[in-house]
Specification:
- By secondary structure, this protein is α/β, with parallel strands linked by helices.
- It has one domain: NAD(P)-binding Rossmann-like Domain (Rossmann fold), CATH 3.40.50.720.
- It is 43% helix and 13% strand.
- The chain is built from nine helices and seven strands.
- The chain has helices at residues 3-7, 22-33, 45-56, 74-87, 112-139, 165-185, 206-209, 212-219, 230-241, and strands at residues 13-17, 37-42, 63-68, 93-96, 146-151, 190-195, 252-253.
- Strands 3-2-1-4-5-6-7 form a seven-stranded parallel beta sheet, with helices on both faces.
- The longest helix has 28 residues, at 112-139.
- The N and C termini lie far apart (51 Å).
Length: 272
């Protein structure tokens, strides 16, 4: 078994939501470089088209297509599913990456911040996956299952609000939903796993990662002393979506530089 065999995605078709920026963009490039045909969708169709053009200019076996797609409503999801079916008869990989956040101090956090965030981050993940199940079931087999990769967050693993209460709760829900779907879909030759990223450079984290100085400051508080890089996401995606990850389901990969195992001081520190 060669590395190429383990991680090649030649002949596979993938859909990456929110694939024009940040972690979605990193994942889309990794899948294209591994030989997949990658459909990139987000609310900003022009941005998706631009990214697809950039990826198609790379010297790879894969290809990319960008178009508009909104997972924030039933109507948006129905339209996205219809567009996917219009473009391809097969779907091997679904990456649920689209997400929104909302920040406000405790005591000022508005009610509407829950409806918007949970609608995209949780209901959107579930409904899109549910409506694409026939395509995923058709492409999966015991030897080579179809793959679903959900994007959670380290903030969904540990009690960290940081003013993003609905976001953190939504990502905890994504992680739990991942495990539920992994259990229920294993009999249909579909694996369901999740990434739980820490700080990466993205539009969502621009307030903290927009320049080198900010990235260094944020990275200084990460146990592994840096923010995430493109290869960190790429490595996870190639493992989970390639042949080497075909026996893994229900896993949550903590791509967070160790934040997921941070804890308080040793309670006996002063006594020692």
């Amino acid at each position: 078994m060669t590395p190429e065999t383990l991680f090649s995605l030649h002949g596979k078709t993938a859909l990456v939501t929110g694939g024009a920026t940040g972690i979605g963009r990193m994942a889309a490039e990794a899948l294209v470089r591994a030989g997949a045909r990658v459909l990139i969708a987000s609310r900003k169709g022009d941005a998706c088209e631009a990214v697809a053009a950039e990826l198609n200019a790379l010297d790879t076996l894969g290809s990319a297509e960008g178009f508009a797609g909104d997972v924030g409503s039933k109507e948006g999801i129905d339209a996205l599913v219809a567009e996917v079916k219009n473009r391809t008869e097969t779907l091997d990989i679904l990456m649920n990456n689209s997400g929104v956040t909302w920040g406000a101090p405790l005591g000022q956090f508005p009610h509407e911040a829950w409806e918007k965030v949970m609608s995209v981050n949780v209901a959107g993940v579930f409904d899109l996956t549910q409506k694409l199940l026939p395509m995923l079931m058709e492409s999966g087999s015991v030897d080579d299952p179809a793959r679903v990769v959900n994007v959670g967050s380290v903030m969904g693993e540990i009690p960290m609000g940081d003013g993003a209460y609905s976001y953190s709760a939504s990502k905890a829900a994504v992680i739990h939903l991942t495990k539920i779907l992994a259990k229920e879909l294993s009999a249909h030759a579909i694996t369901v796993n999740a990434l739980a990223p820490g700080p990466f450079v993205s539009r969502m984290t621009a307030f903290a990662t927009a320049d080198e100085e900010k990235r260094a400051r944020v990275g200084g508080d990460v146990p592994l002393r840096r923010v995430g890089r493109e290869e960190d996401i790429a490595g996870c995606m190639l493992f989970l979506c390639g042949r080497g990850g075909s026996y893994v389901t229900g896993a949550v990969i903590p791509v967070s530089g160790g934040i997921n195992v941070m804890s308080g001081r040793n309670i006996f520190e002063k006594a020692l």
